[in-house]
Amino acid sequence: MNVFLIYFNFYSMISLKFFHTLGIDLYSRGIFFAKTIGIISKYWFICRKLNIPFILLGCGSNVFFLNNYSGLVIINLIKGIFIEEKLDVWLLHVKSGEIWHDLVKYTMNIGIFGLENLAFIPGSVGSAAVQNIGAYGLEFKDICEYVEITNLNNLKVYRFKVKDCLFGYRSSIFMYGLKRKYIVTAVGIRLNKKWCSITNYINFNIKFFTPIKIYNVIYNIRKSKIPDPKLIGNVGSFFKNPIIHLKLFKKILFKYKNIPYYKMLNGTIKLSGGWLIDKCGLKGYSIGGASINTKQSLVILNINNATSDDIICLARKIRIDVNNKFNVCLIPEVRFIGKYGEINPLSII
C-alpha cells in the first residue's frame, strides 16, 4: 500500500489510448484490472483517501475523455455466466464484466435464443444495463429480469427488479442517481423458450425467419456500418436518435416526405439522427483528425490521431447544423469524461 501511495506522489501518468474505443491519446493517474468486487472496492477507497476521482470501465466503448483524467481507471473483469432452465424460460445470471456480444454468441451457440437483435453491440454486460442498449426493435429492458448493484462502501448487494430500474431510451436509474458509490455487478436475463422473431423494424429480406438468420443479418449490417474500433477509433453512435413531439414531426414531414421515422407507444416520434445529419450535407465531413462516418452519420471516427478538441468541434457543428435546419436537438449517447469525472455533454457542445 505504501508503494502505491508513493506512485501517486510522483503523479505518474498512464496512457488511456488502448482502454477506450475512441483511441484518443490521453492519460490517467493509473489503470488497474479488477476480477472481483473486493478489488474494485479497494481502489475506490484509495481514491477517496487520496481525494481523486474514480471511474469503472468495461470496454470503454461509450466514453469520451475530454482531458487527461486525474484519477484511477478500473477495468471491470468480473466474469461468470450461470444458466437455469425452467419449464418455459431460460434464466441467465451474468456478471457485469462479460462482453455483451460474447454473451450473445454464447447463447446462440448453445441453442438459447432471444438476444440476436442485440448482436454486435460493443461494450460489457454492465454497460448494457446502465445504457439500456437497444437495436432493431429490442432493448435490454425487454429481456431484463433484474439488475444487481453493489455498494462499494460496505459491499452490500441490492437487486433491482426491472420495473425499479427506470429504463428509458438509452438510460436507467444506474446512469444517474445510483452511480457515485454503487456499481452494476450482475444482471438477470429472462428468455422465453418459445422463440418469437422481432422483424418489424427493418426489412430483413428473409423468407423463413430463424434466430441464426436474424443474427447473421444484423451482425453483417452493423459490421458494414460501424468500423472495427481497433482499426478506426469510434464509440458507435455518438448521438441518440432524437425523439420529438408529433407537432414538430408534422412540420418536418410536410417539407421532407421521405423522412424515416418510428412511432413510439407514447405518441412521440423517433427520427433517424443519421438521416438528419446527411440532409445537412455533413456526410464525411471532417475537422482535424475527426470525421463523420460515411456509412452511418451518427458515428464519429478518429481517422487520423484526432484530439478531443477535434471531436468536440465536429460534434458541436453537427448539433448546430441539425438544430438550425430541423429545430431538432441531438443529444450525445456517449458519456463525456472530464479531468475530474463525468460532465454534462450539453455544457461542452
UniProtKB/TrEMBL annotation:
Keywords, alphabetical: Cell cycle, Cell division, Cell shape, Cell wall biogenesis/degradation, Cytoplasm, FAD, Flavoprotein, NADP, Oxidoreductase, Peptidoglycan synthesis
Lineage: Bacteria, Pseudomonadati, Pseudomonadota, Gammaproteobacteria, Enterobacterales
GO cellular component: cytosol
Gene Ontology biological-process annotations: cell division; cell wall organization; peptidoglycan biosynthetic process; regulation of cell shape
Family under the similarity heading: Belongs to the MurB family.
A molecular-function term among this protein's GO annotations: UDP-N-acetylmuramate dehydrogenase activity
Keyword Cell cycle: yes
Function noted in UniProt: Cell wall formation.
Ranges where the FAD-binding PCMH-type domain occurs: 24-194
Organism: Candidatus Purcelliella pentastirinorum
Protein name per Swiss-Prot or TrEMBL: UDP-N-acetylenolpyruvoylglucosamine reductase
Catalytically driven reaction(s): UDP-N-acetyl-alpha-D-muramate + NADP(+) = UDP-N-acetyl-3-O-(1-carboxyvinyl)-alpha-D-glucosamine + NADPH + H(+)
The EC number(s) this enzyme carries: 1.3.1.98
Cofactor(s) named in the record: FAD
First-tier enzyme category under EC: oxidoreductase
Pathway annotation from the record: Cell wall biogenesis; peptidoglycan biosynthesis
Cellular localisation: Cytoplasm
Location of the active site: 170, 237 (proton donor), 333
Domain of life: Bacteria
